[in-house]
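Exercise 7. Given the encoded structure of a 383-residue chain, write a plausible sequence.
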């Protein structure tokens, strides 16, 4: 695909997203299940509070960096769907970086084109951004960090990585893999490039956090960071821990329970950081770690799939898997989600007690994800 054709696909993909943004207004007015993500309304309300000279955290359940509310001030003054259009545009920017990284890795045009188009026309990613989910901003910062690391721009990579952690806490899990990939001869002796990366990360993270703390004080620290470390959500979600959280709501959580919940993902994240510590393996390291943090998280919703799906196009060329096996895994992933969604619909919209079935469906979905990750690791080959 030459540059001209790629630009045409970007325009078509962007227009497709705009159509869905427009459709959302119709859907929200005539259907019981809204198209627009509830968080988008939270973002907009937080932006409105800022325009009124108040704190964005006056909006209950706003638990993000104030930077996001500042970015969406045009929702108040210009157009209520500005944020959705902005997030859709960032989707296209992600495609540009995917193409840039794959081309730098010297894959042939066919492979590059397939993986770029998989992102541009992926129904799940299209829906997530057009519903008004802001995770596309976290995704693009992670991929931009990866791009700078591959071009040996370590200070810039650190600066962007610090921003991504401030914006959405989950990229912190990538830090060790990124740090180890910047090695020369001995991975256990830090070098100048690693120092640049760490310094850039610390500077941007502390600067942004300090600036917002000065504006909004401890409330900012708690809502944006501390809340996510202690969060328990008893509402039904994909997490394998959902039913346990639901049954134990109102009971003070003990230390042993927290350790047993966190230990599996910590061990997996550390082992994946070490196993795929080479620079050429970094995209796959980030992808597998993103899958682990989503699979084992105490709360899991569809928007979290964005975290690893954005990295998948950068890894697919190295995954040598038969078409039949790929189709089987994709079908199993979609089917297990569908089963969960069916019982969740019965609970939320029909008022039928299906908590046990949701829990069993969550176990099935977890098992499916584990199987998929294991197969991808087995089929991964360094180029």
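Solution.
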């Amino acid at each position: 695909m030459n540059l001209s054709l790629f630009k045409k696909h970007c325009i078509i993909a962007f227009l497709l997203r705009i159509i869905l943004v427009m459709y959302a207004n119709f859907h929200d007015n005539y259907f019981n299940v809204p198209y627009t993500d509830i968080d988008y309304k939270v973002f907009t309300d937080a932006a409105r509070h800022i325009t009124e000279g108040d704190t964005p955290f006056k909006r209950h359940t706003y638990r993000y960096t104030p930077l996001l509310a500042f970015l969406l001030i045009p929702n108040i003054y210009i157009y209520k769907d500005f944020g959705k259009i902005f997030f859709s545009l960032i989707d296209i920017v992600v495609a540009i970086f995917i193409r840039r990284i794959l081309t730098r890795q010297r894959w042939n045009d066919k492979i590059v084109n397939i993986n770029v188009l998989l992102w541009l026309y992926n129904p799940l990613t299209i829906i997530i951004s057009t519903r008004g989910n802001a995770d596309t901003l976290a995704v693009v910062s992670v991929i931009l960090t990866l791009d700078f690391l591959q071009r040996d721009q370590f200070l810039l990579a650190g600066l962007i990585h610090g921003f991504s952690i401030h914006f959405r806490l989950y990229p912190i899990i990538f830090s060790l893999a990124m740090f180890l990939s910047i090695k020369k001869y001995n991975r256990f002796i830090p070098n100048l490039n690693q120092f640049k990366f760490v310094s850039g990360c610390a500077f941007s993270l502390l600067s942004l956090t300090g600036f917002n703390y000065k504006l909004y004080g401890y409330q900012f620290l708690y809502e944006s960071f501390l809340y996510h470390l202690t969060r328990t959500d008893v509402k039904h979600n994909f997490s394998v821990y959902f039913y346990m959280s639901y049954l134990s709501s109102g009971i003070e959580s003990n230390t042993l329970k927290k350790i047993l919940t966190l230990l599996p993902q910590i061990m997996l994240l550390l082992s994946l950081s070490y196993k795929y510590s080479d620079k050429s393996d970094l995209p796959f390291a980030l992808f597998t770690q993103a899958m682990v943090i989503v699979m084992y998280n105490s709360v899991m919703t569809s928007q979290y799939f964005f975290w690893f799906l954005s990295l998948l196009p950068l890894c697919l060329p190295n995954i040598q898997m038969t078409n039949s096996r790929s189709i089987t895994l994709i079908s199993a992933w979609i089917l297990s989600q569908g089963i969960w969604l069916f019982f969740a619909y019965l609970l939320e919209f029909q008022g039928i007690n299906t908590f046990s079935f949701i829990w069993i469906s969550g176990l099935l979905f977890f098992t499916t994800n584990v199987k998929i990750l294991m197969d991808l690791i087995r089929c991964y080959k360094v180029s």
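Remark. The CA atoms of residues 198 and 311 lie 22 Å apart. Students should compare their own answers with the one above.
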